[in-house]
Specification:
Blueprint: H1 2-23, E1 31-40, E2 43-48, E3 59-61, E4 64-66, E5 70-73, E6 78-82, E7 85-88, E8 94-95, E9 103-111, E10 129-136, E11 147-153, E12 166-173, E13 183-191, E14 196-204, E15 214-221, E16 229-236, E17 239-246, E18 262-271, H2 276-295
Antiparallel strand pairs: 1-2, 1-7, 1-10, 3-4, 5-9, 6-7, 8-9, 9-18, 10-15, 11-12, 11-18, 12-13, 13-14, 15-16, 16-17
Length: about 300
Amino acid sequence: MNAVIRRFALIGVGLQFFLASAAALAGPFTTAIDEFWITKGGAEIFRDSFADGKLPPSGPDDGKPNPNTYIVTGTGGFTGESGGKLTMTPALGAPIGISGVYAEYGTAALRQLATIPANPNFLGQDSSFEIHGLFDMSVVPQISGQSFGINASDRAASLGNLGNETYVLFVGFGNEGINTGKVVVALRLNNYETNVSTVLAGISIEQWLADADQIELLFSKEAGAKELTASYILYDNGAALFSGEIGGNKSLSVYDGEDFIRANFNSSDVVVIPEPPMLALLCVGVVGAAFSRRHRSPA
């Protein structure tokens, strides 16, 4: 009898680990972006205030609705647009092109314009420009892999360019030795040619979470420069709480083999898979139960 009790106790432990892992899937991470805009030469050339109720790829271009403003990845992750907010549930999106130790999913909207220098939307090396994303802070990442942010990317897969410089400025959950266990603003470089993603910098914003209701993420570049600058501003009811630059000691070099940058906003989530020891423990418990039933069957 004691052996049977031990076997069922083992099953219970295995199930406890399994259910704890599955619990992370019960409530998908959902975030919202309030505005996404681009300036060039000090003048605004694009703004999406998410006010028309039409999900990406729809958006405004030339001051009027355009059904093809964006190239969308993980369409299912865009789950609502109303009241000047676009809601994103990235777990309903698509697998991310570069993934780490997690089974990551995401959703993203890349503004299509422009890769042609003659286009006034072109963000070339000669241009000065800024890429802005204003995000809601009512929900923040709780585990590593959950994030929301903006990209400045030289990637144009439709033109045969996988891209070796996609800078991602995002709010996430500290990992990889950068403010582990804290909500951070971080900077990442994705190289889709080599399938390598590198975290360049990160700073904790934990002390501002109780008051901040929005965060603005910003990439900027001076005319003629090859390097980007990344910064952020935390707001409370429209008033700036705190601002800072991130990755200032890094060279955020772009225009390596191409002369365009395109703007993107995005979010990500993870599918938590039980660690192998947890699965092994669960399997041992199940096998033990089967053995117990067979051992107690009538002769």
